[in-house]
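Second attempt. The first submission of Undecaprenyl-phosphate N-acetylgalactosaminyl 1-phosphate transferase had a stray character pasted in from the spreadsheet, which I only caught after the job came back as garbage. Lesson logged: always re-copy from the clean sequence file. Corrected sequence (392 aa) follows.
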Amino acid sequence: MKIIITGASGFIGRQLVPRLQAGGASLVLVGRDPERLKALFPELPTHDYNSLPTLEGDLLVHLAVLNNDQPGDEAAFDAINVALLADTLASAKAAQVTRFLQVSTIQALDEKRVDPYSVSKRKAQAILNAVDGIEVRTVFLPIVYGDHFSGKLAKLERLPRWLRPSALTVLSALKPAVHVDRLATHILSGGEGGILTDGQVQNPAYKTMRLMMDWGFALGVLIALWWMLLIVWAIVAISSPGPGLFVQQRVGKGGRNFPLYKFRTMTIGTKQAGTHEVSAASVTGVGHFLRRTKLDELPQIINILRGELSLIGPRPCLPVQTELVSERRARGVLDILPGISGLAQVEGIDMSEPIRLARRDADYVALRAILLDVRIAIATARGRGSGDHVNE
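This time the job returned cleanly.
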């Protein structure tokens, strides 16, 4: 594979280039200062941007960026992150480069961020979304690290080498991060665009903190609110025919079914289907209140204590929702425990949109970290994420 790289003199580029070389790629470097590139990588051909339309390559990896840790106003960020990207894209098309990979930031995915850096990255993405004539992909990265640390992780350089891995484990449990090795592998394998992180599957600090959150919540509810649970159970059982608790099979981690416990909010005999497929007339009078206040979810502390459910995670669906199960399996969503509340839920995405829901669930799997989990829990407690809406 012949790869053209722009912005190779930056933090990511300096660590990425040797890894791509080691992976067997043939590299050509492009930048505003070819002499600096030649000093950093004397064995590689270097060019300025004016030469780009004449170069040959299978892939162009665009790393050139004005980062958020650098000074500049909106015009300065737009000049590099928007205008330069547009020019580079046009040059890549003129050179008949097959594929264009934009390396961006997860900050661009947060519409609430209105700083010049984030706004400029969203403008750049809009240009890429509208282009034709070349295959375009974008990979969104969180904090990047490798042989060295920079940005928010720069303080780790001050620590003794033996202590850095442990400190990094804790910090990446709080906010997502990605090793440059993963980016190199992604590029060499021709990976799709999307969010790229290390994930938390192998992070013992994240696992420990999540377990503390889950058990702290479950035991806290059990110890402090046991009396309320009994009262709600009795009211549900008395107010309409049927038991106080409702047990329903849901799809959990690994695609295995498990019994989910809730206070019953619907009449006996309601069909087993997604809530959006069930008539509002099936919801009992007490059920409307329980669903609105989310009190119907409290018995799921049983599932948490049994290790079948977490406080935060993708909401578990029914086995009959085969399209959603298939989409989640393909995107790795079933690799983690489902949750009582989740990112898609607080954003108002429910199971009536299976593909959109599975995509956002996959985003959560990539982005999950303790600080995000806490934000989702707070948003849920404040009333966001009312769950799937019944069919009116």
